[in-house]
């Protein structure tokens, strides 16, 4: 059978990636309804060889006939329309953080915890933050092979995580600096070109930022490990696409790098890309546009018992958002 999909936030970076992925994966589409703000309404986007006109999302919009709604817009849109659409019997796949930590909303990466899709009392399923997904994709096989005691992760997040305006800001600042002109910072608090910002989201009184809190809470929920000891530092870097993560894991039982590499290689959706002797390690330029989570620099951490270091790179617009959402829709349409 075929399905009617609604995409809220269709003209954003994730929305456009979603259309490409629906095309590539030949998702069984009966039709599409694309929604965006007034500013983008009227745009025509193509998917599966057909043209689709973007509609303005308004409180009067009728969603009749839609089977699945993919939301990747603002938290306010997710809060208002996620509730409204699911109440209308539409299955909502939400990319925001609004519902992720609710007990009656599954938080899903299909390769890691697809079983969580069995219970969706509110007809809402959340996809994780784009830094959480690659982390749990790498941790799951290690958790199964040797148990996990503690994780320390530092992220290097591209500006596409903030959106198209941030990508423009990085490019414009770089051009201006190359021409010895002033580089204005509007999207970010400071210049991002040739700089690093250890600040994503908002700070709490303890000095953690909301992006770090999200990674810690979401990872524990997805791995069903509420007591997992985990700490994160999130950094915005002057890269256009892909998030990278330096991950240090303290396992419960011994696991040699060779065996860790084998466990990771067996994980669907993970590509082990790791041969320092040939200068082979994951980089954003390798993972951009790709579906896999790239894992490399797998090596023992001799500073602790059963310690392991690894380096993970994944496309934050694809597996970090759009691909994960489409894969969930595929899971829900399989009979
Ligand atoms: C970011 N993870 O990178 C957040 C939202 N995509 O900005």
TrEMBL record:
Residues at the active site: 130 (acyl-thioester intermediate), 243 (proton acceptor)
Record domain Semialdehyde dehydrogenase NAD-binding: where: 4-120
EC number, as in UniProt: 1.2.1.11
UniProt catalytic activity: L-aspartate 4-semialdehyde + phosphate + NADP(+) = 4-phospho-L-aspartate + NADPH + H(+)
Binding site for substrate: 157, 236
Pathway: Amino-acid biosynthesis; L-lysine biosynthesis via DAP pathway; (S)-tetrahydrodipicolinate from L-aspartate: step 2/4; Amino-acid biosynthesis; L-methionine biosynthesis via de novo pathway; L-homoserine from L-aspartate: step 2/3; Amino-acid biosynthesis; L-threonine biosynthesis; L-threonine from L-aspartate: step 2/5
Example of a GO MF term: NAD binding
Classification via SMART domains: Semialdhyde_dh
GO biological process, one term: isoleucine biosynthetic process
Residue sites binding phosphate per the record: 100
Cross-referenced InterPro entries: Asp_semialdehyde_DH, Asp_semialdehyde_DH_beta, NAD(P)-bd_dom_sf, Semialdehyde_DH_NAD-bd, Semialdhyde_DH_dimer_dom
Pfam families xrefs: Semialdhyde_dh, Semialdhyde_dhC
Quaternary structure and partners: Homodimer.
PANTHER family in the cross-refs: ASPARTATE-SEMIALDEHYDE DEHYDROGENASE, DEHYDROGENASE, PUTATIVE-RELATED
Protein name in the entry: Aspartate-semialdehyde dehydrogenase
Native source organism of the sequence: Nitrospira japonica
Gene: asd
